[in-house]
Amino acid sequence: MNSSVIVVGLYICTIFLISWYTKHRAAGKAENYILAGRQLTTPLIMVSIVGLAVGGASTIGVAEQAYKAGLSAGWYTTAWGIGAIVMGMTVAKKYRSLNITTIPEMLERYYDKKSMIIGIICQIIVQLVVMSMQYVAGGMILAALMPEIFTPTTGMLMSAVVFIGVTLIGGMWSASITNLMNVSLKYAGILMAVVLAVRMAGGMDQIQMNLPMPHGLDFIDGVGPMTIVTWIIVLITVNLSLQSIIQISLGAKDVHTARKGFIIGGLLMLPIGFVSALLGVIASELYPNISATAALPQVIMSLDPWLAGITLAALWAADVSCACNLLLSSATLYSHDIHKRFVDPNMSDSKYLNVTRISVFLLGLLTLSFALTISGIISTLMAGLSLMTAFSVIVLMTMYAPKYCSRAAAFYTILASVVVLVAWMFVPAVRVLPHVIYAEWIVCGVLFVGISAVTRSNAIRMEGVEPAAVQEGKTKAVPAQH
Length: 482
Fold this sequence. Notes:
482 residues, mainly alpha, 76% helix, globular
């Protein structure tokens, strides 16, 4: 108990000290706060995407799934890694070269205002759902670390104080630099924890003999191949179009830095989910009657007190960094695409910065209220993230086949993605495919291409940008003339 209090206390102090240290970098222009002045290096891009992806869902959530389904639950984090690699190899450079701040800004530039508005709404909703998961995971970690001080609910409240505070102080600089520490300690802690947990359980052969579930150590059976493929499709989709991920690439100092950071970060993610999953499997054997969500904290807390405290505090700190990125990008969507666009178009840069910080505070409180009513980390995420399909279709077509895109197509494609998700949730008869993501890709892809073909005379225009120049980030795309 005492060691856990000391470790968490030191972590909180260190995180806030780093945030205060980076505060001067985030001062001045709003771009310094929102995009780190577009000066992030390859290591900072790398740890930022790892910190965002390997947060609560990829650790607590994977162990929760593994507690019930076995080692194959680790594919969730591997799918994140695959998505980041695809992002780095395809559109990360193109995003950085467009010199935009948000996805809705791109929608207005090349499509129309109503596409931008519906894009803002969908992006904010999805990000708030994802961020709510970080509160749930953070609450479980603190409750396991210090059960005499925190319940899962009060742990969420404490997490909210840190999430909001760190983001308010240092913005993207704070989130990025704290991730240098968080990612290193998180990986080291989890790897040491799994070695000691395997020894405590009597070795892998003993774990295999005593497993309460069939195929507990199989890499495919458990969640099953269809679920694995679904996770990969969903998370490639998300990496191509979620604002918080795009904002990391937009903060890179140049297009090559963005590309390298995402690819290296994706490679680092590939194995770590199976480590968390193995801890969930061990928990299912040692603690068969606990809540599945508590699987990872419970098995880690059974190890050496100092190692347990450091490992769980590192997971909690990574959860902090993940939440900071999500909270900052949601606030940016409001301040840049709603307030600056519709409420106060002529506001100064300093006011723009203040509006973003106020948005961080208010949206942080809103997501806390969501977290208090959510259960089932990964299942909740998978449904919400499927809304990103429409954005992925639009982004890929805009960047790789602009002459086949119509300005009328974006709005109806995003609207269709919402209709598909709502129908899937409330009309069981439409669930003829294994997961809603497949229905989303079919409907959004066919609708976008169909509308563009019918209204070809209303095609988007990207005049003045040579492909090579876009690749190198030397010019800015010329907006379509409405």
